[in-house]
């Protein structure tokens, strides 16, 4: 009887020990730096573990970058495009259209594949980091863009962030930066924007990440310009601003406007939406338009190029 009691007591103690140990390991896992795979799932649970940018950055390696960065002193505009590994056609269309007039780089992560699987890796315009590339990681991708640009291209006059479905008008962009050489950030400014709390939607921002119902002001993420002199300050300011999943609100409002007090200059030509009539004269007046397929991009670029020869 005593032997059975001793065995039971020992078993209970062992069970309690392993339960306690498991609990400690679980707690440590929840609070420590997230691993590359678990931290970047397609939901937002990784933000429940940590919203501290350095926790993510220390886990991410730079895998590929241009041999020679196109970042000469006083370069008017450097375009950096957020793209995905599979968007080879989009990148090709951009290289053959507006990137012929604007120095352009592409930034992306990976989805389990190796850099060698990128068909256009030899173009010398890719910046590839080791993280899961999907929409919920766009804020992280933008932070990496700021990091790379502040280290390699801080002498540019303006960095233009844009996406790979955008038609840019270089002629209008050149006028914008010429007319505002000292602006902090330039873009299409959204004022008192109501946040989307519907979980199934693309721009869902949960209240536990951002409890306020409105954003006082931010720049639309399809295309905005950042003055080169602020790149380093914005990157390091992001270290102190808890991450959220909506990139343009995080970068242009939480980091640039609220944390650093930088001014957001409204530019109607960066509106982004297509004109109500598909006429080249309407497109010509815009600096950026979004939601283009590669085929559409090539077609409309030909129209803009022809228009540029007739407009002073």
Automatic annotation (TrEMBL):
One of its GO terms (molecular function) is hexosyltransferase activity. Keywords: Glycosyltransferase, Golgi apparatus, Membrane, Signal-anchor, Transferase, Transmembrane, Transmembrane helix. GO terms for biological process: protein O-linked glycosylation. Gene3D superfamilies: 3.90.550.50. InterPro entries: Glyco_trans_31. It is found in: Golgi apparatus membrane. The keyword Transmembrane helix applies. It is an enzyme of class 2 (transferase). One of its GO terms (cellular component) is Golgi membrane. This is Hexosyltransferase. It comes from Pieris brassicae. The lineage of its organism: Eukaryota, Metazoa, Ecdysozoa, Arthropoda, Hexapoda.
